[in-house]
Amino acid sequence: MYWSGLSAAANAAAAYQTGQTGYPVGHTPTGTYTTQRAAGSTYDTGYQTAAAAATHSTAAGTYPSAAASATYDYGYGRTTQTAAAAAAAAYDSSKTYYAQPSSATAYTGADTHYHNVFSTDKAAYTNASAYTTTSRQTTPVVTPKASYTGTYPGAAAAAATATYNTSPYAVQTTTANKVCCQGCNYLNQPTNPLPTTALPVYMQQTSQPAATVAAVKTTGNTWQTFKKPGTMQGKAQKPKAPPKPQQLHYCDVCKISCAGPQTYREHLEGQKHKKKEAAAKAGPTPSRHGASLRCELCDVTCTGADAYAAHIRGAKHQKVVKLHQKLGKPIPSTDPVVVGGTTKTSTTTAGAAVGAKTTTSGGTAATTGTLTATDGKKDDLKDDLLDLKEKDVEPVGQEYIEEIKNEEGKVISFNCKLCECRFNDPNAKEMHMKGRRHRLQYKKKVNPELVVEVKPSLRQRKLQEEKLRRQQPGLHQLREEMWRRREEERLLEEEERWYWEERRRYEEECEYLDWCRRYPRGPPGPPPMMPPGMPRPPFMPGMPPMMPMRRPDSSDDRHVLAKHAEIYPKEEELGAIQKIVSNTEKALKMVSDYLAEVDAPKEQQVKPKAKKEVKEEDPKGDDDKKDGEKKEDGPPRMLKGVMRVGILAKGLLLRGDTSVQLVVLCGDKPTRTLLDRVADNLPKQLAVVAPEDKYEIQRVVEEAALVVQNIGEQRISVNVTLTSPIMREQLLHDGDSQVTAAKDPPDVLDKQKCLDALAALRHAKWFQARANGLQSCVMVIRILRDLCQRVPTWGPLNSWAMELMCEKVIASAGQHLSPGDALRRVFEALASGLLLPGSPGLLDPCEKDPIDAASPLSAQEREDITASAQHALRLIAFRQIHKVLGMDPIPPPKFQRGGRFTRKRRRDNSTGEGNDSEGELDGGDGKKDKKEDGEDSKMDMDKETK
Amino acid sequence: MVMTRGRGRGMRGGMMRPMGPGPHFGPKMKQFVPRLPFDMVLCESAFPRVKPAPDESAFTQALLKRNADLSPTPAEQAAVLNLVTKIQAVMDNLIVDPGNFDACQIEEVRQVGSYKKGTMMTGHNVADIVVILKTLPTKEAVEALGKKVCDDLRTQEPQEVLVLTMLPNDRGFEISNSEATVRVLVTTIHQNLRKLDPELHLDQKILQSHLAAIRHSRWFEENAHHSTIKVLIRLLRDLRGRFDGFEPLSPWMLDLLAHYAILNNPSRQALPINSAFRRCLQLLAAGLFLPGSAGISDPCEGGNIRVHTAMTLEQQDLVCLTAQTLLRVLSHGGYKQILGLEGNSSIASEMSVWDGVVVSALEKAYEKPPERPPQDDDTDNMDADDDPMETTDN
Fold first, then answer.
1. Rounded to an integer, what distance in angstroms lies between the CA atom of residue B117 and that of residue B110?
2. Where do the DZF domain residues begin and end (chain B) (predicted)?
3. What is the spatial distance between Cα A367 and Cα B15, in angstroms, rounded to a whole number?
4. Which of A12, A356, A756, B340 registers the highest number of CB atoms within 10 A of its CB?
């Protein structure tokens, strides 16, 4: 783009050069053309057309010098008159063209000045009809361009303009080129043909901003050089120019007379005059007013019939009339001239408008011409006038005009609430209510459907143009589209990066969660590294698909994870428990072997009893066959196997837990004798298994258990409960357990305890099948276990009911829940009355009969737990989960709102780019670090204590 | 690398602002997926009944009785209907033939609110009518319209001249006779909404709420015509009137809650009134209207707006805790007190004993955030409060 701009500028310069050299007089641009006016003017014209051509060539982009020569030929071939017209055309076009850069306005003003002086001097210009023709000849002015532009597709806009003057609407429909359409659409607004030539240029300018700016610079600069001598000369010649019969200094532009030459000069240099001049020169100005009435004499445009009448009555107008009478100049009738406005765009109005314009620049003699032209079309004008008057008839918004009264209740002034203006005169009030401003306000604030005549201001025009550009898929829009697409691509890319980042984070979490879940019941052996942040295999195959879960580090999640890390047992604890449990298990196996060995020869002593029992039960229990077969197969073992149950099996160990449970399944109903035998033999076997450790063994007959305890700093006890499936089978199959119980050996252990042990086994199985696989479930159960231990209100909630409830509640969500959400959902369930009377209750899946797992809870306990959960739920909702968890709040990670930054940074860190430590504190990293630190300190402490 | 980072950050920051945390395409690190709270009705299958459901016929009877007490009498209904019909006729006339009345132009007149929905309560004979103006609703225009309607009514019914009153207010005007009141809520067509000037016109929020009222009544007609819903709405409104804690719940929230409680269940059959009433309390107690909950998204607004976000956090807390206490009271058999058949509203705020079980009231959980980080621009209380909570809790 930049390149084309440069070349275009070069083209412009080239075009200018050719124009210059081609000129026969051979004046240099800075030459003094003032000596010979005609030549100068032609030169001026030639130059201007060349400049115009240059601009065009700039706009078109790739112009050969032929373009410039064509323009030059044209300028040269015409008479002075037409050349001047061309100059005017070129000037006009360049003026509107340069209207954007503020620096350029200076020279336009000067140029106008020059033209004015020039036109008053030269008789050739005083003929108004000639003028109208010249301005009509704007069409031929452009046509040559059109002819050459025929070869340049880029300049088709010029062709469009050429045709525009004759039939604007046809152009609109016929031209295929979009640029043209834009130009024409835009051009429909002003009825004055003059600016139309300029507009295509403008359009092209917008499409190639760089190029035109460059062009403006070059041409603008050369113009500056002209300007200065031009204005100076013009001024010097001015006073003597008008032949004055009297000592009257009359300014045609401002319609005033001055007392003397001095004041006249001063007036000419004054701001007011220059402004007027510029206004007079600026063709489109009158047309902007839309439908308006003009007083030709005073060159005053009135917006309505009322205003016009007021003007005619006014002192200023009278003064001007007097002056003109004095000067002997013809006074036009007071009939107003309608300017612009009519949307018919008939040739008549256009002509009238042009005529009117000419008056401003043409001077006194021209006025008559204009008037004749106007008179010819008087009928039309009358219609217009009527239209105008009709439009203004209806005053609106009377109710919004307040009357302000003085103390005596006399109305002294009026206040329009809509327009926020005041007036003292009732007539002014009437005028105001009919006025455009008021109507606009009324339309804006009261009735949007009120019709207010359009008055396209500069801004509006621009807006409309903008709209057009947006509507039509032009170059501009293409560019916009490109930008948008680029932006989208960028976003997509970023999003993808995000996805991977997210995924990586998730994997970390997943690994961690997974590990937490697996570890406690995992095979004995070196446990995996505790924190997830340490070196780990980069990718674990067979990871579950992770997409549906939400990001696991909301504030709640972070708290839950931190709390979980806090209550999770230390490695030493786990190790110690692992050790004593596995030793006990091994020892029990050996006890079993030993008992089987011992029992084989001693069968007469011990076995008969048992056998008798079995035989008695056999006809009743069908399921016993297997046992019977087994017994016949090998040596009938008393102790069939040992199983982990309770928190040990479920992996719900918490920090500080020192008691775990094992269940020994016996072939027969466990008896006290059996318990004694095991208890007697176990120490020996333990000594074999772990010679270096000392264990203490207690019998707790009423619990149907024996307790193995290690002797050391951490006292860990393993409760080994003896039970047998027979106890339950019996219960399930025949209702009258009393009968069989009577036949039981006298020292059979407590039945309920044995049944409980069996239930614990079932619970462990259920847990592993249902809860372990459920996302966040185990973690939430651990948290709630901690809560039940910590908060007295929650104490009565037994762990089985709690586990069951958590599983049901979390599973019923039907989606993966992050730990924080899962915990909240459990509280939601309790808060909505899960434990209250009237609720369905917690059906125990491990029992044949429908039993509420929470049945031990009393009504008051249920009520209290519910109330507590309800409060906890609201605490969680209002970001106080730390209160529920009994911990300190974790400060939100830095850049909470834009969490993205931190992660960005982290990614950057991972590439080893920088080591800014800011980002390390948040989210997963923070947790990781914390845990590592905690672990380290713990280790240190342990070392010290050891 | 550094450049990329800088650019990325800058662009992103600039881009996020207009987009907000809504469901837009693009990198959404703040994607907040609100979750529905636990709802026993929706996961019934996970909680098979241990014992058969208790008999609730007495409760149901009490609910129906209460509803009968709350419904307007035929005389009241007739009075309201009468006045509404007259006013509607006058307005229709104004649309067809404005005559010399030019203060405003009426686009449309619609009945809305409890009158339209058939959820009116006895003793509250107020019907709502929304008038959509084609012109902009200046206070003068509204007053002129009120006068005009009133005058027309008076000419129609000369005997009512004395009792008919017209009172302009912020929302439009009220026309009442001795028996009934019609609130005429003025609004304007959508295109005019952005042209409003607070100095001159009625408040934009009010105008929008009136437009919303039209959408609400339309939605209600299409979706919530089931009579159980209407009964439940009446009961909930009564509840709201008697327990201060429910005061922040708007009628529209109650409508949606009742509709949700009755129809949003696996079988898609309307729940019986007793279950639905209990469910409303359960839902509120489980935090349906708490931050972080998906709540009920407004069916009449675009962009998934959760209706409860119209309440402040403090109000959300209050509503939730009131529902939680009432739920416990209800489960211990205190339905008569809840329905207002016995006792008073102190059960929601004071300790009470039911069958030897002590039911205690709850405390507020919401705390005002101690101080805001400086970069958080506190634009408007509610959203600024609500958003971080919502967006960071994801």
1. 12
2. 30-379
3. 61
4. A12
Per-residue model confidence (pLDDT) at position A635: 55
Judged by DSSP in three states, A695 sits in strand
* Residue carrying structure tokens 């009238």: A352
Q: How far apart are CA A438 and CA A395, in angstroms?
A: 9
CA gap A760, A719 in Å, rounded: 13
Which residues have CB under 8 Å from A385's CB, separation 6+?
A: A293, A305, A336, A338
Mode of pairing for the β-strands spanning A705-710 and A421-423 = unpaired
Closest CA to A835 of B337, B273, B331: B331
A191-224 per-position pLDDT tens digit = 444 433 333 334 443 344 444 344 444 433 444 4
CB proximity list for A722: less than 8 A, separation 6 or greater = A663, A664, A666, A670, A674, A675, A678, A704, A705, A749, A754, A757
Report how far residue A723's alpha carbon sits from residue A669's, in angstroms, rounded to the nearest whole number: 7
A767-773 — which CB contacts under 8 Å span 24+ positions? Answer: A767/A649, A767/A650, A767/A803, A768/A521, A768/A649, A768/A650, A770/A807, A770/A811, A771/A650, A771/A803, A771/A806, A771/A807, A772/A517, A772/A651
Position with higher pLDDT, B168 vs A62: B168
Q: Residue A285 and residue A96: Cα distance in Å, rounded?
A: 12
Report how far Cα A160 is from the mean position of its chain's Cα atoms. 42
CA torsion sign, A571 to A573 to A576 to A578? Answer: negative
Q: How many other CB atoms sit within 10 Å of the CB of residue A666?
A: 26
Q: Would you tell me how many other CB atoms lie within 10 Å of the CB of residue A568?
A: 21
The DSSP H or E segment spanning B187 is strand B181-188
Does position B233 have pLDDT exceeding 90, yes or no? Answer: yes
Name the residue facing B49 among A834, A840, A911 (closest C-beta).
A840
- Which DSSP state fits A767? I
Say whether A555 and B12 touch across the interface (CB within 8 A): no
Buried b / exposed e over A580-606, threshold 16 CB at 10 Å, is bbebbbbbbebbbebbeeebeeeeeeb
Rounded to two decimals, what is the model's pTM?
A: 0.58
- pLDDT at res. A393: 54
CB atoms closer than 10 angstroms to residue A484: 10
pLDDT, tens digit, 9 for 90 and up, residues B60-89: 999 999 999 999 999 999 999 999 999 999
Question: Nearest CA to CA, how far is B122 from chain A (Å)?
Answer: 32
A447·B105 Cβ contact <8 A: yes
Q: Are A754 and A721 in contact (CB under 8 A)?
A: yes
Give A422's strand partners.
Answer: A415
Residues 6+ apart with CB under 8 A from A41: A80, A83, A84, A87, A118
* Residue A842 contacts B where some CB pair is shorter than 8 Å: yes
- Taking only the tens place, the pLDDT of each residue in B173-204 is 999 988 899 999 999 998 888 888 888 888 99
Q: Do residues B287 and A873 lie in contact, with contact meaning Cβ atoms separated by under 8 Å? A: yes
Read off the pLDDT of each residue in A274-282 and give the average, rounded to a whole number. Answer: 74
Q: How far apart are the first and last CA of chain A?
A: 78
Per-residue confidence (pLDDT) for residue A282, from 0 to 100: 65
Per DSSP, the three-state class of B190 is helix
Contact A495 B26 (CB under 8 A): yes
Cβ of B1 and A870 within 8 Å? Answer: no
Judged by DSSP in three states, A748 sits in strand
B48 and A874 within 8 Å at the Cβ level: the answer is no
Return the minimum-mean-pLDDT range out of A27-31, A326-330, B164-168: A27-31
Q: Are A882 and A780 in contact (CB under 8 A)?
A: no
Cβ density class B286-311: b for 16+ within 10 Å, e for less? bbbbbbbbebbebebeeeeebbbbbb
Q: Does A177 touch chain B if contact means CB atoms closer than 8 Å?
A: no
Instruction: Find the Cα–Cα–Cα–Cα dihedral B307, B309, B315, B321, rounded to 10°.
Output: 70
